[in-house]
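step: validate -> pass
step: tokenize input -> pass
step: predict -> running
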Amino acid sequence: MTVRHPEKINKPINPIKKKPNWIRSKLINSKEFFLTKSIVNQHKLKTVCQEANCPNITECWSKRHATFLIMGEICTRACAFCDVATGKPKPLNPLEPLSIAFAVKKLNLKHTVITSVDRDDLVDGGANHFHDVIIETRKQNPETTIEVLTPDFLRKGDSYKIVVDAKPDVFNHNIETVPGLYRQVRPGSRYFSSLELLKNTKKINKNIFTKSGLMVGLGENKDEIVQVMDDLRSAEVDFLTIGQYLQPSTKHHPLERYYKPEEFDELKTIAMSKGFLLVSSSPLTRSSYHADEDFAALQKNRIAQTNAQSIS
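step: predict -> pass
step: emit ->
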């Protein structure tokens, strides 16, 4: 049985605030959008674009950019901000790695993003499946760079190392919010465990770009946001994304407020001063939004940083 956030059933209804005029997704209707949709459907794949109701889906799919959601569309956790269904997941599909690889080839992707639901029911949290998807995708698409957005693998020991061993080009794990809001927003996760995951990934392989994302508008303050930036830099995270939380329904965590575009600009300036290689900060920024362009910028910035260090 699949339910949506059962623990919220008896909670009060949280009215959804009207969106300001700067929160507007681009409605692009093109043959490329329907081509992307058809390839996704043909291979019976799931995407986080659909399952999480991403506001950027029409723009991204019109560029053939889809973020693949592996290990099913049912999550074992019920984060208060997320619109992905919660319940008992189905068994893993052993053919999924090949299906992902073929879809990437048909879409002719230069950079692909692969994420998943939380699978606390699996002994390894799904790490071996992630590994297989990365390996098969690279086998079928040797010129394509691969970015993974992983769960935290909480209480799964060193299983995350299996994912790192597959050498994705970018290892992303979202911190999501400030530590003071974890119990309300992300009760199944632990702030410092997420930091350790990112820190240890960089320790194992310095060549892998590490990345994390933060939502704003959940009730945090500026000092807390800056502290998260410092924590992520202490973990040597390369790339930070900051986007506006959009409340999916009246049963989800209430939206405290909408940040203005100039506030996102200010947060970007602060984050860049901390030493991140790249920061994407805007109302509609999401983990995989413009991921291909961002990866190119990461490579360019790393080269510039290395050159600057060699000169000094």
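step: describe -> The CA atoms of residues 46 and 69 lie 5 Å apart.
step: cleanup -> pass
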